[in-house]
Predict the structure.
Amino acid sequence: MDARSVKKCASCKEDKLLSCFHIRKTGKSYSYCNTCENIKSRESYYRHREKKIAASKVWKLKARYNLTPEQYSDLLNKQNGVCAVCQEEKKLHIDHCHETGKVRGLLCPECNHGLGNFKDSIKLLENAIGYLF
């Protein structure tokens, strides 16, 4: 093996081919071989998992619905932790108008899909109520 095509991994201390190392955008290779890099990444993910999940939820609230965690909490408290339609205590989804993006409330998946199936149309819902009677 040519010495220029081999590199020592900073983690496992083994001499490995350069092809065993990821290459940075700058053209230089990482200090750890792919195997050690994957192990370190996995360990880091599990070590910081809860924090990353919480940050992701905050980001999604803001990006999708322009809500802060406090505003979501207020909405949840106003509805006493239950679905705005069926009043059952289930996992709740944020319901919003697809035209305006305005948040209407929190619904369980069944009620959220139900409104979606009726295309959020009051007329269709009135027709359904009339049909039931």
